[in-house]
Write a structure and sequence with these properties.
Distance between the termini: 73 Å
Strand content: 5-15%
Number of helices: 17
Largest sheet: 4 strands, antiparallel
Structural class: alpha+beta
Order of helices and strands: HHHHHHEHEHEHHHHHHHHEEEEH
């Protein structure tokens, strides 16, 4: 088991180094990549905290450590969306904060200086989580005074708005969602508490790194005898520290105002997305799959969503040309949409033809074109999945199948007499 712990501690050490490097990178990064650097730093801190908690839990219960430390994935094709999500949710650090059960397990373990440091940092993280959850309840809705200014109202002027029946707490989420006042402010009597909770909430990433370092020191002391291993393999967001432009490349932004040429391009792209979305419905109707209409509708919606995502992603690059050049992609997209709109019906009819059309295509227009079985000289009907073709001049009746609407299977002879006639004409 020592080998497993050696690898796990080495990987945790690599995550700790990446977390410290990411925090420093936020201060040193140029302004153009700083938002990405902040998102990476928050995600790396969350990975470090999550991995440290998992290893500490395994250490205290004397279990084998996981083969891979838990880290959040960086979305490969939507990294700009990942950046916005990681930045808005602090990289997921709140979900990685040690819970009460973890604290109970840590306090019940044999006491040591390194374990006491880890417990202290875990309590600090819980204080940050408490601040995050409680700060919203310190706000209240208020009614401004008749002659007070904005600053006076925020620091205690005016009067608190009445609360809703059954919810006496002014900071309750119901009173905050349905306020009876015209403004929102921090409750004057709880401003000091708000400042303390704000400090706790803002320090969550610093405390996450401190907790990871404390756990790393504990594991090195108890599992490695004080001999710290070299940093191991780095996974997750830590691999992108210092490579922000490769993670989220610079892209052309949407213009604040669209002129007529850009509107033409967007209209052409919208028509093309609509034509592509109609493909499942058109082919499903020709293939006789209307019984699976919900599945076809889901496929059409998925194609539409994918098309909209591509337009949002690459649209600004297509309309950045000045003047008439901005309309060229739209004209090309409109022409492609027109061809697709007009052609999908004929293409689907060709691949999912009915039995009469397939008889003409496979036999009447080919090997039977100069025989009594050509199209204008026969009487044909479908009965029980079999196409019967009887020449008007008399002769053997052909029995071909399977005769189904929307089928892609070729017509084949169903009896020996039909096979003999087809062999006679070289079919």
């Amino acid at each position: 088991m020592r080998t497993h712990w050696h690898r796990a501690i080495a990987d945790l050490s690599a995550q700790g180094a990446a977390a410290r490097a990411a925090a420093q990178r936020v201060d040193d990064a140029p302004g153009s990549v700083r938002p990405t650097a902040k998102a990476i730093s928050k995600a790396v801190d969350a990975d470090y905290l999550r991995s440290a908690s998992e290893l500490l839990r395994a250490h205290l219960t004397d279990r084998r450590p996981p083969r891979r430390l838990p880290v959040a994935r960086v979305w490969p094709w939507f990294r700009d969306v990942w950046e916005a999500r990681a930045g808005g949710r602090r990289g997921g650090v709140w979900r990685a904060v040690p819970r009460d059960a973890d604290l109970v397990r840590m306090r019940s373990a044999p006491s040591s200086d390194v374990l006491a440091a880890a417990v202290e940092q875990a309590e600090a993280l819980q204080a940050s989580l408490h601040g995050k959850r409680t700060m919203g309840r310190l706000y209240e809705s208020y009614i401004p005074g008749p002659r007070s200014d904005a600053i006076t109202e925020l620091v205690g002027g005016g009067r608190p708005a009445p609360t809703l029946p059954g919810f006496p707490d002014p900071g309750h989420i119901v009173n905050r969602c349905f306020p009876r006042g015209s403004g929102r402010r921090i409750r004057p009597d709880r401003r000091e508490e708000f400042n303390r909770l704000s400090v706790d909430r803002s320090a969550v990433h610093t405390r996450a790194r401190a907790f990871g370092d404390a756990v790393l020191a504990l594991l090195v002391e108890d599992r490695m005898g004080g001999d710290a291993p070299q940093p191991g393999r780095l996974r997750g967001a830590g691999r992108w520290v210092g490579h922000e432009r490769h993670l989220v490349p610079d892209r052309t932004k949407w213009p604040a105002k669209l002129n007529a040429y850009r509107v033409v391009t967007l209209a052409g792209l919208a028509w093309l997305v609509l034509a592509c979305s109609a493909l499942p419905l058109t082919f499903g109707m020709k293939a006789g799959l209307l019984s699976n209409a919900p599945l076809l509708l889901v496929a059409a919606i998925l194609i539409a969503c994918a098309g909209i995502a591509l337009v949002v992603r690459h649209g600004p690059k297509l309309i950045k040309a000045p003047g008439l050049g901005a309309a060229v992609p739209g004209i090309a997209a409109g022409f492609a949409a027109l061809m697709l709109w007009q052609g999908q019906g004929s293409v689907s009819s060709y691949y999912f033809a009915g039995p009469y059309e397939r008889y003409e295509r496979e036999y009447a227009d080919e090997c039977l074109a100069a025989s009594p079985y050509r199209h204008e000289s026969v009487r044909s009907m479908v009965d029980g999945g079999v196409l019967t073709v009887t020449p008007l001049s008399g002769g053997t009746t052909l029995r071909l199948g399977p005769a189904e609407d929307g089928s892609t299977h070729p017509l084949r002879p169903q009896d020996r007499a039909t096979r003999a006639v087809l062999d006679e004409y070289g079919c």
